[in-house]
Structure formats: C-alpha cells, structure tokens
Amino acid sequence: MKIKFPKIKKSYQKEIYKIDSGIYWRIIVGLFFVLVILSFIFAYNLYFQINKEDESFLEVNSEKVEKEKKEKINKVLEYFAERQKNSDKILNSAVPLVDPSI
C-alpha cells in the first residue's frame, strides 16, 4: 500500500520586478552621476576659496573676541562664586527643624 500525497502545483511567475533598461533610464542614471561629479567639483572649489580668505580680517577681530571672552568668563566666574557663597551659607546654617526619626 502506497501513501498518496497530493501533488503541489509549481507555478513559476514571470519576473515583473526587472529594471527597465530603456533609453530614459540610462539618461536618468547618467544625469545623476553628472550631478554627483559636479557637486564634488563645487565642494572642492568652495573649500579652497574658504581657505584663501584674508587672515588679516581674523587678526583684527581677534582682539575684540578676546575681550569678549574675558568678560564672559568673568561673568561665569562671578556666578559660580555667588553660588559657592550661597552653598556655604546653607551648609553652615543651623537646621530649623529637628528630624523626628532620631
């Protein structure tokens, strides 16, 4: 006695997810690569233009920037000194309430 298994139909579908290699697709891919190459060229030129800027402009403003930095640092130091005073004041003060768990 043989066991008869039902036969499964094998259906092969046509590949519908194939890339269309028509002339329009080739044009789009070519334009994309040209655009990428042009963007690299533009970035390269922009990078070297920025590097060639006058450094004298930066030197003139450096003194002003240093003064502003010193002022900002002093403000921050004053703020933290005030906070330190407040912290010391709180730590050294007597506790107004007694802990009931003691």
Please outline the helices and strands:
Elements lengths: L22 H29 L3 H38 L10
What would you note in describing this structure?
By secondary structure, this protein is an all-alpha fold. Among the domains are: 21-53; 55-92. It is built from two helices and no strands. The protein is flat. The termini are far apart.
Number of contiguous helices: 2
Strand content: under 5%
SSE arrangement, N to C: HH
Major sheet description: none
Helix content: 55-70%
Mean pLDDT: 81
**Radius of gyration from CA coordinates:** 38 Å
Euclidean distance between termini CA atoms: 91 Å
Total DSSP E strands: 0
The stretches of 5 or more residues where confidence is low (pLDDT under 50) are none
Which geometry do the CA atoms define?
flat
The secondary-structure class comes to mainly alpha
Q: Keywords for this structure?
A:
mainly alpha, 102 residues, flat
Quick overview of this protein structure:
With 102 residues, the chain is mainly α. Among the domains are: 21-53; 55-92.
